[in-house]
Amino acid sequence: MCPHDRTMRRQVLLFISVLALNSVLGQVTYSIPEEMAKGSSFGNIAHDLGLDVKRLQAGKARIHTGNTAEYVQLNKENGLLIIKERIDREALCGQIAPCALHFQIALENPIEIFPITVEITDINDNAPVFEKGERRFEISESAVLGSKFMLEKAIDPDIGPNGLQSYTLKPTDHFILKLHSQSDGSKKVEMILQKPLDREKQEFSSLMLTAVDGGQPQRSGTMQIHITVLDVNDNAPVFTRSIYKASVKENSLTGTFITEVKASDADKGSNGDVSYVIGNSMSSISKLFHITEDGHLILKGPIDYEKAKKYEIDIEAVDRGGLSDSSKVVIDVGDVNDNSPVINIISSSNSIGEDSNMNTVVAVMSVNDPDSEENGKVQCRINKNIPFAITPTSSYLYSIETDSELDRETASEYNISVTCSDEGVPSLSSSVTLTLHISDVNDNAPVFEKSSYEAYIVENNTPGLSIFTVKARDADWNQNARVSYMLEDSSVNGVPVSSYVSVSADSGVIHAVRSFDYEQIKDFQFRVKAQDGGSPPLSSNVTVKVLIQDQNDNPPQVLYPVQTGGSVVAEMVPPSADVGYLVTKVVAVDVDSGQNAWLSYKLHKATDRALFEVGLQNGEIRTVRQVSDKDAVKQRLTVIVEDNGQPSRSATVVVNVAVADSFPEVLSGLTDFAQDKEYNDNLTFYLVLALAVVSFLFITCLVVIISVKIYRWRQSRVLYHSNLPVIPYYPPRYSDTLGTGTLPHVYNYEVCRTTDSRKSDCKFGRAASQNVLIMDPSSTGTMQRIQSEKKTLTGTRMPVFLTCWMTPLLTECQSPRMCPLVLIVESSMQFALLTTSRSKISSSASKRRMEAPLHSAVT
Ligand SMILES: *[C@@H]1O[C@H](CO)[C@@H](O)[C@H](O)[C@H]1NC(C)=O
Ligand SMILES: *[C@@H]1O[C@H](CO)[C@@H](O)[C@H](O)[C@H]1NC(C)=O
User: Which of 404, 577, 584, 610 is most enclosed, with most CB atoms within 10 A?
Assistant: First the structure.
């Protein structure tokens, strides 16, 4: 309690001395500071009262305090007043000043009373004290300047200068202290806000309020003032960046996390709670993206690089108080190879000619891939092994061109499949197929199946007989491949070849025009040309060799011995002739060939069969036995010469043999040979008969020829105006031999099939004035028309042999324009009689077919 003892003691001594002076007045007054140490003395009564110490002892001096506490003690030995109890002025007097102890020194013997006053002076033994060591304030940061906050006072029991003097507040950043003196002398302490508070800068602060007194040394008391700044929503959220960048691949799944945005709000609590919204709420962006409360930007819908490569999203951050900040998220959409190339054919040809030049463009197409970079780089190719190539003409245009020669005959159609693929990983591709037809060009000549032909025909054939067929194929198409055949002009033995053979233009069937005679001509050759229907036409030709085969149509002819009508020649055999004597040799030839000309000789009749024999092979007549005189002079041998044909033909020869040594002998026997005359007469009769028949036939022939001539002239005039396809007619050289074989074999029966209207292209016929149509189902044109006619007759498609008689009934024909025409068609199936009149024929082709009365008739 007395930190500064030394100083105090000096003060005390000073006071005592002063008081001692006052004691002279009879009343002793001491002034001592409070808080003197126990046992310390502060005055000498004996001295101050002028008393002897013995008196004090004798008088049993004592201190009388009444009922108050005894703070002071008297030492009777020396009269010193001694502090007995600590004296606290504040306890003794409080704020009352001056403060003194009043007591009396009482003496006995005699009783004497001396009042003593001990004035207690204040020392600064109390510091100012606050009732509470700390004080808390919660102040809104929005508190206005000048706001006052009452602080409590400090208490200092000391008085006077030792009492409370002033306050200080530290630090003074925001607040200053203001003191108001009050009537009781105390002070009201206020703290005034002089600078705005900011919770965000400093939420908590501590101030120290210090109260000081005026003592020496000065004492102070402090109080902590804790200030908590209450938050006010005075801060908007602030994004960490003004622009966020992110990227996301297209076609990412819904719910894919894209990026996170963050806005901070300096405020506290709910004032600092930030929520995020997408600003472009009206646009489609809000359908694609979603932002969560905590700022995660999430994919909500499908995004397509090909529609948008970039999105800019306005993001707003809002706190509960409605303050906000905005930022932007820029999203780059990453391309994924999700688009196949798109092929568009801009133009393409359906067909090109096989003679097209190299690099002929057949198609142009555009190819487009909306993807980017490698994903959008496209390569196109076409299938291999076709004569086409694809070339890029610009960044997205491709053309398909021919890159080698085309040949329709090798490939008439191409499927060009174009495949375009991008360079993405994995690569996507698409393809189209173009079908291109190669159109025909007449670039192939007809080709005969063989390089040359050989055909065989047996002589004495019927005219019109088909010998055989040449066939040429043309690799081209349709009209370019329609082959027609024709004879090339040449001559055989000075006769035009067309009088030997004809060729059917459509079918290539070669017909014999005439009957051949092996003995006149053994073979001949000609050329057949095959020509296609192209423009210009192409043709080729082939050699046809016709070999005529022999028939045994000639009997052997005996050259020797010569058979004359009158004279008789005889061979002579001397009577002495030996066995095997060569009498003569029958020499015969046969104009046929081969077996047909292989002659054998036989003895048919003989006067004496035993005498002669005939060499089978050589015709040598030899004696078989010795000739004797008994043998008749005249020997008559009949030798048959036979050829080896099938059937064989023969000739007989009579050999007269005279068995004599000399010619006169022979002559005598000659008359005997005359008996053969009967035989010769017979022969003459036959010859005359034959001549008569020939003459009759010749006349008949003439009549027929003339009538046919007239008829044909008429008919050709009619046909000129009609398209009548089948015109049977009798050729000018018509002659009917009825197969008697006595006339020269000149057969010229023609059936004229018209392709155009008036020209004949085929001739054939048969000897018995019957014209044979050989229906070849493969032939076209006129033949088909004939066939259709035929179908009406038979109702079948079978090949039918038609035999036609054309009988112009001239006798009944009064007016040339109304000549009835009878066409008798004999088929293998049935017979029909077509009767029509010329006027009807000439009306029209179709009408003719419809109107022609058709009768089944059996002839
Ligand atoms: C082309 O394609 C069509 C249809 O797929 C097919 O009928 C034809 O045979 C093909 N042609 C070639 C030459 O492959
Ligand atoms: C027949 O064909 C040959 C080649 O095969 C040719 O040299 C000749 O000129 C042709 N003849 C005619 C008359 O066209």
Answer: 584
80 compared with 570, residue with greater pLDDT = 80
Query: Best mutation site among 470, 538, 540, 541 for ligand 2, i.e. most ligand atoms within 8 A of its Cβ?
Result: 541
Same domain, 244 and 207: no
Domain final residue, candidates 209, 232, 255: 232
Query: Which atom of ligand 1 is closest in space to residue 411's alpha carbon?
Result: 13
d(CA 822, CA 835): 5
Q: How many residues does the chain have?
A: 859
CATH of the domain at 72: 2.60.40.60
Claim to verify: residue 491 and residue 369 sit in the same structural domain: no
Give the closest residue (by CA) to ligand 2 atom 3. 541
Same domain, 828 and 715: yes
How far, in Å, CA of 219 to CA of 237, rounded?
50
The single-letter DSSP state of residue 481 is: G
Cα(393) to centroid of ligand 1, in Å?
28
Q: Which residue is it, tokens 């009548």?
A: 724
In a domain, 677, yes or no: no
CA 381 to ligand 1 centroid distance, Å: 19
Tens-place pLDDT, residues 418-445: 999 999 989 999 999 999 999 999 999 9
Q: Are residues 513 and 607 in the same domain?
A: no
Domain membership flag for residue 602: yes
Is the confidence at residue 845, as pLDDT, over 80?
no
Q: Whose CA is nearest to atom 10 of ligand 1?
A: 415
User: How many Å lie between the centroid of ligand 2 and the Cα of residue 266?
Assistant: 111
Give residue 543 CA to ligand 2 midpoint distance, Å. Answer: 10
> What tokens were used for 562?
């010569």
Nearest atom (ligand 2) to Cα of 539 = 14
For the CA of 414, the nearest atom of ligand 1: 13
Q: How far is 266 from 273, CA to CA, in rounded Å?
A: 10
**Rounded average pLDDT over 389-395:** 93
Residue 855's DSSP bridge partners are 833
CA of 433 from ligand 1 middle (Å) equals 10
- Ligand 2, atom 13, residue with closest C-alpha: 488
**Domain end: 495, 526, 549, which one?**
549
53 assigned to some structural domain: yes
From the CA of 414, how far away is ligand 1's center (Å)? 7
Which residue in this structure is represented by tokens 């015109």? 727
Give the number of whichever ligand sits closest to the CA of residue 416: 1
Same domain, 150 and 171: yes
Q: Which domain holds residue 325?
A: 233-334
Assess whether pLDDT exceeds 60 at residue 838. no
Ligand nearest to the CA of 488: 2
Distance CA 241, CA 258 (A): 16
Ligand 2 atom 8 nearest Cα: 541
Least distant ligand from the CA of 417: 1
- Reported pTM: 0.48
Same domain, 131 and 220: yes
Closest by CA to 637, choosing from 647, 622, 650, is: 622
Say if residue 755 is in the same domain as residue 833.
Answer: yes
The answer to whether residue 306 scores a pLDDT higher than 80 is: yes
Q: How many domains does the chain have?
A: 7
Within a domain: 157: yes
Q: Which residues have any ligand 1 atom within 6 Å of their CB?
A: 413, 415, 435
Classify residue 285 as exposed, middle or buried by CB count within 10 Å of its CB (0-12, 13-18, 19+).
buried
Q: Is 264 exposed, middle or buried (0-12, 13-18, 19+ CB in 10 A)?
A: middle
